[in-house]
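Suppose you are handed a protein chain with no further information: no name, no annotation, nothing but its sequence. What can you learn? This example shows the usual starting point.
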Amino acid sequence: MAAKKKRKAKKRKARKWSGRVTRESDALDLKKGVFKLNDPKKIAASLKRSAEHSHRRKADPYRSALSMLTFYINRAGKNLPASRKKKLNDAKGELKKLFHKDKPKRKKTGKKARKGK
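A reasonable first move is to predict its three-dimensional structure. Written in structure tokens, the prediction is:
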């Protein structure tokens, strides 16, 4: 009986690491409830503000904000309703706009010459 309780407690503790990461991230100090906001623009603006004010992040602000959003979507994925997931994915697009990353990438033209021929 005692073995079951230990196993159950251990399992419960192991499942909460992703929530701890979102709360106590070394990269960003997120505003409480940022992922529960209903407006993708507000979510993106909050993530941008957090990323730009952080002195502990290792990547540029855009990359840090996008990584945290993607991490949250991936970790909460199964439990998120489709409408919520859509809002969070829309926030990715808003982040791109806020950081001026929405320009289309230029396509390379021509083929590269192979070395050795």
